[in-house]
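STRUCTURE:
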């Protein structure tokens, strides 16, 4: 015979009641709850992004501190090397100065003059070479290269400039001579404007009427 099955005791619900306000809030609050979930998710995402930025800044600061420390160590190492080199140079300089203390500097010697002539004779040819100093400036070098062509060119330029100046003076004199009669010509007097008086206007009107009457009479007689 199998085990005896025990029945669970279920408490009887005497009454089930619904709150109308809670029911209405549940049925009409879907959008509100959705917006709350979205806002909560956004807040969590913002906190996560803020934490990530903080970690990134912390990492960057640590890297910069390490680089700065490395630069300081490298600088110290370079200073030590420079000090060691200076010490060795001073020792070499002191040893060299002892050897050169007896010698005095005589200054820069002047180069010998190069103006001379030399003759070269061959079995078939004979030539004379003249060596002379030249000016190291631009004009001196140009003169040494071009020779007499520069002087001729300068002379031609001077003659051309003098000729142009003479032509300009002649042209100016000709224009001045041409303008002189017009300058001496007497100016024409400007006619003065004068208002007619009332009597003059009446007299002119009477003359005009008389002239018109004569012309009309002459036309009628024809």
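SEQUENCE:
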């Amino acid at each position: 015979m199998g085990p005896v099955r025990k029945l669970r005791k279920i408490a009887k619900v005497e009454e089930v009641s619904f709150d109308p306000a809670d029911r209405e809030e549940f049925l009409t609050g879907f959008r509100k709850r959705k917006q709350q979930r979205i806002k909560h998710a956004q807040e969590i995402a913002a906190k996560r992004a803020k934490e990530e930025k903080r970690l990134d800044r912390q990492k960057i600061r640590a890297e910069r501190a390490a680089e700065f420390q490395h630069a300081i160590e490298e600088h110290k190492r370079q200073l030590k090397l420079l000090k060691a080199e200076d010490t060795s140079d001073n020792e070499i300089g002191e040893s060299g100065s002892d050897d050169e203390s007896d010698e005095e500097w005589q200054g820069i010697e002047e180069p010998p003059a190069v103006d001379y002539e030399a003759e070269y004779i061959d079995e078939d040819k004979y030539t004379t070479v003249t060596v002379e100093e030249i000016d190291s400036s631009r004009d001196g070098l140009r003169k040494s290269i071009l020779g007499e062509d520069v002087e001729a060119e300068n002379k031609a330029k001077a003659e051309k400039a003098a000729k142009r100046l003479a032509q300009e003076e002649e042209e100016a004199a000709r224009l001045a001579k041409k303008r002189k009669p017009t300058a001496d010509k007497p100016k024409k007097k400007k006619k003065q404007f004068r208002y007619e008086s009332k009597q003059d206007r009446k007299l002119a009107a009477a003359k005009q009427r008389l002239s018109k009457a004569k012309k009309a009479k002459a036309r009628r007689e024809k």
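REMARK: The mean pLDDT is 77.
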